[in-house]
TrEMBL record:
GO biological process: DNA repair
Keyword Transcription in record: no
Cofactor: Mg(2+)
Ranges of residues in domain HRDC: 7-86
Protein name per its UniProtKB record: DNA 3'-5' helicase
GO terms assigned for molecular function: 3'-5' DNA helicase activity; ATP binding; DNA binding; hydrolase activity
EC assignment: 5.6.2.4
Keyword Glycoprotein: no
Top class in the EC scheme: isomerase
Name of the gene encoding the protein in the UniProt record: recQ_1
Domain of life (superkingdom): Bacteria
């Protein structure tokens, strides 16, 4: 069963996550969807995962992607939640 996204996510956070994904993809010379796809970023913007365990509960985040890309995404989400990124 596919999860539908009815707009219950933080669009501002989603935009920041996409920007971070693009920066990482450019640095690694890989397509952005290889980092995380949009559905995964939307789910991150819905759930605001702050720990490795919470990140692993997001569809599209596995152990390898968490190890490779997780820290900057969790840091960005933490800053957004705390209001430190403005």
């Amino acid at each position: 069963m596919q999860k539908s996204f009815g707009g219950n996510y933080d669009r501002k956070l989603f935009a920041k996550l996409r920007k971070l994904r693009k920066a990482i993809a450019d640095e690694e010379n890989i397509p952005p969807y290889v980092v995380f796809n949009d559905a995964t970023l939307i789910e991150m913007a819905e759930q605001s995962p702050l720990t490795a365990g919470e990140m692993l509960s997001v569809n599209g985040v596995g152990t390898r992607k968490l190890e490779r890309f997780g820290k900057p995404f969790m840091a960005l989400i933490r800053a957004h939640v705390d209001g430190d990124d403005e």
